[in-house]
Amino acid sequence: MSDAKLRSSAWGYGLSSPALLLFLALLVMPLGLTLLLSFNVFDYTTGIQAGEYTLSHYLSLVTDTYYYEIFLRTFWISALVTLLCVLIGIPEAMVLCRMAAPWRSIFLIVVLTPLLISVVVRAFGWSLLLGADGLINQAITALGGQPVKLLYTPFAVVIGLVHVMLPFMIIPVWTSLQKLDPAAEQAALSLGASQWTVFRRIVLPQIMPGVLSGTLIVFGLAASSFAIPGLLGGRRLKMVATMIYDQYLAELNWPMGAAIAIALLLINLLVMLSWNRLVERRYKRTLGV
C-alpha cells in the first residue's frame, strides 16, 4: 500500500475515532456490562454475589412457561401493531405525497406533531378515552348499550402503540414515494392497467425499501416499549419491558432483569434480521436484480 493510501486511511480512522469511541461508550460498554450482570448469582437474602456466575437465569427463561407467555404476547402485539401501521401508513403516505402545497406541509406537520408530545401524556389521553368512565363508554351508554372493558386489555395496548408508532411508518414510505417517477404510473394506466395493478406491480416494489425500514423501526420499538404497555396494559397484562422493570425495581433481581433484556435484544435482532433478509430477497426477485 502506498504512503498516500496509508495517510488517507489513517486520516479516515482519525476522523471516525470520536464517533467510534462514543459508540463504544454509549452502546457496546453498557451492553457488555448488562450481559455480564445477567450471569451473576442472585440471592434474595444477600443480593448479587459478585464474582459468582451462573446460567440459572437463562435456564429459567427457556424452561418456565410464565416467560414464554409474556414473550409470545409481546411479539404478537408487536407484529399486529406493525401490520396495522403498514395498512394505515402506506395509504396515508400516498395521500400525503399527492397533496399540493401548502396542504402537504400542513399535513406533514400534523403527522409529526404527535412526536413532539410525551408518550406518557398520550397514554394518559388514551386512558381517559378507553376507561370505564371514558368518553367511548359514555357514548356507548348514551346509545343504550353496556359499558365495555377497553382499558387494561391488549386492545388498548395495540391502539396506543399504533398511535405512537404510525409516524415511524409514514415518513420512510413517504420518502420512498418522493423518488417514484409519476410517468411510470401514468404509462401503466394509459395501457389499461387498473389502479390496484399499478400499485401492486409498480408502486409497491419501488417503495419496499421504505416499507422495510418502517416495519423494522415499528416492530423494534413496539417490542421494547414500556410506557404504553405499563399505562394502558396495567399490572396484569405484562409485556417484556414491564417484566424487566419489575425484576429491577420490584424484585430487585437485577441479574434476572438483565437476562430478560438480553433475551429480548437477541430475539428482536433475530426476527428483524430474518424479516430484512426475506423482504430484500423478494424485492430483488421482483425487480430482477
Give a short synopsis of this structure.
The chain has about 290 residues and is mostly helical.
Describe the structure.
The structure is a single chain. By secondary structure, this protein is mainly α. The protein has 2 domains: 1-38, no CATH class; 54-287, MetI-like fold. 77% of the residues lie in helices and 4% in strands. It has 12 helices and 2 strands, in the order H-E-E-H-H-H-H-H-H-H-H-H-H-H. The protein has helices at 3-38, 56-63, 65-98, 103-112, 119-130, 135-142, 154-178, 182-190, 195-223, 227-233, 240-250, 254-287, and strands at residues 40-43, 47-53. The chain has a two-stranded antiparallel sheet with strand order 1-2. Strand 1 (40-43) and strand 2 form a beta hairpin. Helix 1 (3-38) crosses helix 12, helix 3 (65-98) crosses helix 9 and helix 9 (195-223) runs antiparallel to helix 12 (254-287). The longest helix is centred in the N-terminal third of the chain and has 36 residues, at 3-38. The chain is globular and about 75 Å long. The two termini are 34 Å apart.
Question: What is the secondary structure topology, with strand pairs?
Answer:
Elements: H1 3-38, E1 40-43, E2 47-53, H2 56-63, H3 65-98, H4 103-112, H5 119-130, H6 135-142, H7 154-178, H8 182-190, H9 195-223, H10 227-233, H11 240-250, H12 254-287
Antiparallel strand pairs: 1-2
What pattern of helices and strands is seen along the backbone?
A: HEEHHHHHHHHHHH
Q: In CATH, what is the homologous superfamily of the largest domain?
A: MetI-like
What is the top-level CATH class of the largest domain? Mainly Alpha
Coarse morphology: globular
Coarse structural class: mainly alpha
What's the domain count? Answer: 2
- Please state the oligomeric state of the protein chains shown: single chain
Widest sheet, order of strands: 1-2
Number of strands: 2
Helix content: over 70%
Distance between the termini: 34 Å
Sheet of most strands: 2 strands, antiparallel
Per CATH, which architecture of the largest domain?
Answer: Orthogonal Bundle
